[in-house]
Design brief:
Blueprint lengths: L2 E2 H4 L5 E12 L2 E6 L1 E2 L13 E3 L2 E9 L2 E6 L8 E6 L1 H25 L3 E6 L4 E5 L5 H17 L3 E4 L23 E4 L3 E4 L14 E9 L2 E8 H22 L6 H29 L2 E5 L2 E7 L3 H10 L6 E7 L4 E7 L6 H10 L3 E5 L2 E7 L2 H9 L1
Parallel strand pairs: 1-4, 17-18
Antiparallel strand pairs: 2-3, 2-8, 3-7, 5-6, 5-8, 6-7, 9-10, 10-15, 11-12, 12-13, 14-15, 16-17, 18-19, 19-21, 20-21
Helix pairs in contact: 2-3
Length: about 375
C-alpha cells in the first residue's frame, strides 16, 4: 500500500521516496514508490504531474491501494528519488475541486439536489445536479458561493470511525461503508472525497459559473475558480477592450453598439438575400426535356431554388433546377407534384459523384458536372 502523503499535507510540493518497483510499459515505465504526494486520477480530477528526479511524470493511477507513476525513464529498485510536483497545476485543481464542493453543497442545501457527475478539464469544471435550476437560481448560488469565499471558512479532511458514518449527513456519489474520507467546509458542505483540497475557502478565489444547460433531467453547470477564473476574466477583459476600440464605444456602451450593428447587419443580409434571389430568378435558363423541366442559374441558395421550383411544379411532371457555383459544382433541387423522384436522384448522383436525397417527391443535393453533361443526362 502506497503511503498517500497528499492526504495529510495537500501543500507538500517536494519529497523524497524509495522506488519499490519499476516495470516497462508502452511509451515509458511504471514506477511505484513507498510514499507519494502525487495525486492519482480519480473522483473527476486529473492526475498530478511533475518530476521524479529528472524523469517527467506522465500519469498517476491507483489500483487496490498501490499508486503507480508513469515516467519516461527507468529507475533502480531501492533507489532514493527526489520528487517535485507541478505545484501551479496542482493548486489550480485544488482551488477548482474545493470550489465545486462548495457550489454543490450550496445547491444541496438550497434545493436538495445531488451532484451526479463531476469532471475537471485543464481550465474548467462541470457538475451535474439532478434537478432543474433557473438562471436566477444559478445567480443566487454563485453569489452565496463567493460570499462563502469571503468568509474564509475552514476546510478539513478526515476519516471518521465506521460506526459514525450512519450518524453523519454527508454527500457521496457511492454507497461506501468503510474507508470513507470526508471533506468538510465549515457551515456549507460535508462530502466524501479522495482528492486534496485547500485549507480555507478564501484560497478558492473567484467562483464563476460560465455556462449552464439542461442535462439528463437535471442541469450541467460549467464553472471556473481561482487562477483559472482570473485568467478567464482577463481574456474577456482584453476582448472587451478590443471591441471598445473597434466600435469606438465606451465600456458601458459596447453591448448597445453591438446590438445596433447586429440589427443593421441582419437587415442588410436580408436585403442581399432578396436581391440575390431576384437575380437568380432573372437569370434562370429553362428547357423542357420530355416530362422534365430543367432550369439553370448561378449563385442561388437552396431556399431560392426551392421557391423557384415550387412556382413551376404545375408546368411539368418533374422540375429539376440547378444552381452553379465555382469549379463545375451544381446544387440541385428536384421535385414533383405526383411522381417519386428518388430513382432519378439516385441515378443523377451516381452519374456525377453527387450527394443528396430527400422524400419521394422532393430531393436536394450537389453534383460535380457542367451544364451540357447535365442536359445530356436528362436527354438520355
Amino acid at each position: 500500500m502506497t503511503i498517500k502523503l497528499y492526504e495529510n499535507d495537500a501543500y507538500l510540493k517536494e519529497f523524497e521516496a524509495t522506488v519499490v518497483s519499476c516495470e516497462e510499459c508502452k511509451n515509458g515505465y511504471l514506477i511505484t514508490l513507498d510514499k507519494t504526494a502525487f495525486f492519482p486520477e480519480g473522483g473527476g480530477q486529473q492526475a498530478d504531474c511533475g518530476f521524479i528526479n529528472d524523469a517527467k511524470v506522465i500519469d498517476v493511477q491507483e489500483k487496490s491501494g498501490i499508486i503507480t507513476h508513469k515516467v519516461n525513464k527507468a529507475f533502480e529498485i531501492g533507489e532514493t528519488v527526489l520528487c517535485k510536483l507541478d505545484w501551479d497545476t496542482r493548486f489550480a485543481r485544488m482551488q477548482g475541486h474545493t470550489g465545486e464542493h462548495l457550489v454543490s453543497g450550496i445547491i444541496h442545501s438550497m434545493f436538495g439536489y445531488d451532484n451526479l457527475g463531476f469532471h475537471m478539464s485543464d481550465k474548467t469544471m462541470t457538475l451535474d445536479p439532478n434537478g432543474l435550476l433557473s438562471a436566477e437560481d444559478i445567480k443566487e448560488i454563485e453569489l452565496r458561493a463567493n460570499k462563502a469565499v469571503y468568509e474564509n471558512r475552514e476546510i478539513t479532511a478526515y476519516y471518521p470511525e465506521a460506526s459514525a458514518l450512519d450518524t453523519l449527513d454527508y454527500r457521496s456519489k457511492l454507497d461506501l461503508k468503510e474507508g470513507v474520507r470526508l471533506v468538510s467546509i465549515d457551515g456549507y458542505d460535508l462530502c466524501a472525497c479522495c482528492a486534496p483540497h485547500v485549507h480555507r475557502t478564501g484560497e478558492i478565489g473567484l467562483i464563476k459559473i460560465i455556462d449552464f444547460i439542461q442535462y439528463k433531467g437535471g442541469m450541467r453547470l460549467t464553472m471556473v475558480c481561482g487562477i483559472n477564473a482570473f485568467e478567464d476574466y482577463s481574456k474577456l477583459h482584453d476582448d472587451s477592450k478590443e471591441m471598445m476600440h473597434l466600435l469606438s464605444a465606451s465600456r458601458d456602451k459596447v453591448l448597445d453598439f453591438v446590438t445596433r450593428d447586429h440589427e443593421t447587419i441582419g437587415a442588410q443580409k436580408a436585403e442581399i438575400n432578396r436581391l440575390s434571389a431576384e437575380i437568380a430568378k432573372a437569370n434562370l435558363d429553362i428547357k423542357l426535356i420530355g416530362s422534365t423541366l430543367c432550369g439553370f442559374t448561378k449563385g442561388a441558395s437552396f431556399d431560392d431554388m426551392r421557391n423557384m421550383v415550387n412556382e413551376r411544379l404545375n408546368e411539368a411532371q418533374i422540375v429539376a433546377f440547378f444552381s452553379e457555383s465555382e469549379n463545375d459544382t451544381f446544387s440541385y433541387i428536384i421535385s414533383s407534384a405526383a411522381s417519386d423522384v428518388r430513382d432519378l436522384v439516385k441515378a443523377l448522383n451516381e452519374a456525377f459523384c453527387g450527394k443528396g436525397g430527400g422524400r419521394p417527391n422532393y430531393a436536394q443535393g450537389k453534383i460535380t458536372a457542367n451544364k451540357d453533361s447535365i442536359l445530356k443526362f436528362f436527354e438520355n
